[in-house]
Design goal:
5 strands, 18 helices, two-stranded parallel ribbon, about 350 residues, globular, 3-stranded mixed sheet
Amino acid sequence: MTNEASTVSAQTLADNAVWKEIVAEYQKPSLGRAVWQILNTVIPYGTLWYLMYLCLPVSWWLVVPLAVLAGAFLVRVFIIFHDCGHGSYFKSRAANDAVGFFTGILTFTPYYHWRWEHAIHHASAGDLDKRGTGDVWTMTVQEYLEASRWKKFAYRLSRNPFILFVIAPMYLFLLQQRFPSAKASERERHSVWAMNAAILGMALGLSWLVGLKAYLIIQLIIMMVAGGAGVWMFYVQHQFEDVYWERGEDWSYVAAALKGSSFYKLPRILQWFSGNIGFHHIHHLSPRIPNYNLEKCHQADPLFQQVKPITLFSSFKSATYRLWDEKNKKLVGYSALRELRKQQKHAVR
């Protein structure tokens, strides 16, 4: 993404407030589209789960591809859950909360607690002074250089691709989300315990039907696939070279949306499974737009299309970015540290 194009887009929208008029039309939920999306997502997911159970005694060669497909559908289930948390999926708040709780059971995510933390993410994305809630741990170059040896080790470990996209998703969905944050309100804390009870009930019921071993194998494989894909999507949406980060009064909501959230242009089939969340610049500009309207909103005005897309192939480069370079305003890899040390040695001489 070029800084020039994205700056023009953000500045134009901020000055003229044009974006508020444009997005208003697409913030209107559609009951028909919402119900159809639930049907074409939850029913296939349940069917695949059952097919995996039938194939488990036959061959792993049948189970694994079904698990990958089921994981893709679970990502789509999470997008429905996500939209309900924003109150954008249905016009009815009660319907959003009911479907949000149900899809939260399938994704092992406490609805009200996640909604609260995710709202913080939207209010602070791209703000260097408000990092730490609902985001990927990101240190600046200077912070890393000044960190203790143990903290540097922990940071490098957390940024290791295997840890970040395999271990961390399983830890997040299976363990971390079973406990409320110390900062959570009473309702958010209670939502965690209620979700834990609902998940336990689902696990016991399915274990009784298909057997404990079959349930654990099937559920863990699906969660591993969906969790890894979901974390990768979230990572790419906010971790790319020219991403936006600013401090305090220099931070802008519009710039954080259009420059700090990527337009992840995926192949059509992956766009479908990911519920259009690749139009993340539009989503952060207006979280009240349901996922089934994001693409239409993006196409509604050239201002949005000035945001340069990140393709599936080019997105893999994001995995090499580790630290935020405040001086040059871009994410860099660890190799930048070696260059900085060389410059410092040269300056001393």
